[in-house]
Amino acid sequence: MAMSIKYKFITDLNQVEIMRQIYNNNLDALSTKEKLKYKTSAEQINWWNNLDHTKVMSWLYYDENDKPIGFLLLTDRGRFNTPMFAIFKEEWGKGYGARIIQDYILQSTKPLAGSQLQSNKAICHLNKKFGWMIISSENGVDYLFRPEYYTYNDICVYHGIKNDL
Ligand SMILES: CC(C)(COP(=O)(O)OP(=O)(O)OC[C@H]1O[C@@H](n2cnc3c(N)ncnc32)[C@H](O)[C@@H]1OP(=O)(O)O)[C@@H](O)C(=O)NCCC(=O)NCCS
Q1: Ligand 1, atom 3: closest residue by C-alpha
Q2: Tens-digit pLDDT profile for residues 90-147
Q3: Is there an atom of ligand 1 within 6 Å of 87 CB?
Q4: Quick check: CB of 59 below 6 Å from ligand 1?
Q5: What's the pLDDT score for residue 160?
Q6: Confidence of residue 148 (pLDDT cuts 50, 70, 90)
Q7: 90 CB under 6 A from ligand 1?
Q8: For the chain, what is the radius of gyration of the CA atoms?
Q9: Which domain holds residue 12?
Q10: Atom 9 of ligand 1: nearest residue by CA position
């Protein structure tokens, strides 16, 4: 699908507030290991001010009319990075999610780890499409890993064709 999408680093509190609105708009889908709680503006600002900005990169995404549509956080957790992103519900299904995934794969200089709700069919589909592997599953949650670089062997195993070669 042809679309124009822009992103900017989150640097000011107006953007932090828009991120809060997107987050609150997607609470159910974002809760995997633990249930996430609605955030007030004051809680969001407090969270932002206490964030270790040397470890967390954050972007807000805009459509071609400069309307905010989503956010992305990429957190350095030592041996790997974890992404977290969401899109306003009314903007789902336009290809933005796939684009944001490709962006964090390119931005990440480490392997990626994360989790997905098995009931979130769109994210399960996209994660598989972009090379995430399920390491384990528990209580409706899949735990995921994505190597920074795929070797030829990884790709064969991932596509289940190793024994056919
Ligand atoms: C998951 C999310 C990011 C997807 O964003 P999006 O902009 O709608 O994604 P896209 O339009 O790029 O792609 C959606 C894909 O899911 C597929 N999909 C949608 N519903 C599906 C379903 N029920 N079963 C299988 N696939 C489904 C679509 O076909 C599409 O895949 P395709 O491009 O290969 O055809 C968005 O729904 C969201 O913000 N969810 C809440 C937060 C979240 O889950 N964040 C990710 C975890 S951190």
Answers
A1: 97
A2: 999 999 999 999 999 999 999 999 999 999 999 999 999 999 999 999 999 999 999 8
A3: yes
A4: no
A5: 66
A6: confident
A7: no
A8: 17
A9: 5-164
A10: 97
Residue 73 beta carbon below 6 angstroms from any ligand 1 atom: no
User: CATH no. for residue 93?
Assistant: 3.40.630.30
Strand order in the sheet with 68-76: 5-9, 56-63, 68-76, 81-87, 112-117, 141-146, 133-138
How many independent structural domains does the chain possess?
1
Residue 127 Cβ < 6 Å to ligand 1: no
Task: Give the Å distance between the CA of 28 and the centre of ligand 1.
Answer: 14
Our mutation pick for probing the ligand 1 site, out of 91, 125, 127, 130, counting the most ligand atoms within 8 A of Cβ, is 125
SS3 call for 36:
coil
Residue in this structure with the two tokens 């990440």, named with its chain if needed: 108
Count the Cβ atoms, other than its own, within 10 Å of residue 83: 20
Residue 116 burial (CB < 10 Å; 0-12/13-18/19+)? buried
User: Looking at residue 114, what is its pLDDT?
Assistant: 95
In the numeric block, the tokens 């709700």 are attached to 117
Q: What's the pLDDT tens digit per position in 37-63?
A: 999 999 999 999 999 999 999 999 999
pLDDT recorded at residue 155: 67
